[in-house]
Amino acid sequence: MVRNVYLCQTVQSRVMLYFILRPFARLGFRLYFRKIYLHTQAPIPADGPVMLAVNHPSSFMEACVLACFLPRSLYFLVRGDVFVNPFVNFLLNSTHQIPIYRFRDGFSSLRNNHATFAQVYRWLGEGKAVTVFAEGTTRLEKKLRPIQKGLARMVFGAMEVENIQDIPIVPIGVNFVEAGRWRSEVMIEVGPAISARSFLEADDAENKRGVRKLTQTVEEAMQPLVLHVNKDEDEPLFNQLCQLDRPENFWHVLPNVSTRNDAYQCERSWASRINNMDEPTKSQLNQALASLNTPAMQPKRSLWYWMTWPGSLIHRIPLALAYRITRSKAKPGPFYAPVLWGSGTFISLIFWIILAPFGFWAFGWWFILIFAALGVLGVLHIWAIDGDRIRNEKKRISQFTAQTKSLLQIPAVP
């Protein structure tokens, strides 16, 4: 019970931290991701209670990116074992996060879920948007894992306890192209809302049938929103085939946040074809695509890269420190990307705060102009790196495509 005391604290005393951190986190994502695709099939309800059902590939990364770029303030259920001390509890609760415990956390911890469910009911009763990672566990893979029944139970429980007529459930798929690589892409697909009320049946004791049917419906709604490769061993082949189209799909630098979903549909098409491909064809493709695994030719740097190079000084030191921390603290997997993004954003902020007084001491008010110029050059330098990488990749893949793609008779992906 001690670990859940913070649930009883007033939200008003801490809610400001969420809105203070949000713009810095949003800026961090705009620098970390080269492209953020946010495609919404139907608008998320602007007010009233709503439950967001989200896949869970990369620890707290998807929670943060949704909180930054979806229009509503979000509230989250996260793993109970991260609530380890009063400071962490305060920080997580101040950013709208409460714990949900699993069987592996022990029976005594599971009993704390009663307080968590009660808090979720209150949030929904107050008309808030609650985010649930519907798979229950986090794993970095191109796959939608089975949806757990807890989401449906919470929805029906809130409708009963808070006397809510209906709670729409919005399915969302978060798809990272290469989560652990700086300046990669993320594709977010938002599906139309599902009415929970339509699954209530008068003769259904404890809503057991309703829970089962609603869970199945949510899973079916999420399937077209998440890139799904049936076999884990086929993911390298999937990534290699997608590389044939990524330079073309991800070519445009602006806008940083796009509502298009043609890149997602392209990669989903490759996933579908791999899932329906026989093993001999996969083997043939793996052999033909082996050249993509060889070290690429030495990248050629453009004149624009060298002209904007001084701007790299403003982010090169924080990024190097972030990589060093991440490699020492997080193994490749679901925690690597969020640790890299989080540490990079935090270190950059601290670096700029420390740099400011030294700059004023050395240059006076000229420092404002120097800092602004370096900031602009820094952004232009990042774009130069993106452009050089994509141009070199397009050249390398075009050579590969001309020799091998036609030989294997791989048609263009629509």
Quick rundown:
With 414 residues, the chain is an alpha/beta fold. 50% of the residues lie in helices and 12% in strands.
Q: What is the class of the largest domain in the CATH system?
A: Alpha Beta
Total helical elements: 15
> Quick one: how many beta strands?
9
CATH fold naming of the largest domain: Glycerol-3-phosphate (1)-acyltransferase
Give unreliable regions as ranges.
1-13
Shape: globular
Spatial gap, N to C terminus: 55 Å
Domain module count: 3
Residues in helix, %: 40-55%
| Percentage of residues in DSSP E strands | 5-15%
Overall pLDDT score: 85
CATH architecture of the largest domain: 3-Layer(aba) Sandwich
What structural class should be given to the helix and strand makeup? alpha/beta
Order of helices and strands: HEEHEHEHHEHEEEHHHEHHHHHH
What does this structure look like?
With 414 residues, the chain is an alpha/beta fold. The protein folds into 3 domains: 2-228, Glycerol-3-phosphate (1)-acyltransferase; 236-294, no CATH class; 303-403, no CATH class. The protein is 50% helix and 12% strand. Strands 1, 2, 3, 4, 5, 6, 7, 8 and 9 form a 9-stranded mixed beta sheet that branches. α1 (16-32) packs across α2, α8 crosses α10 and α13 packs antiparallel against α14. The protein is globular, with a radius of gyration of 23 Å. 34% of the residues are buried.
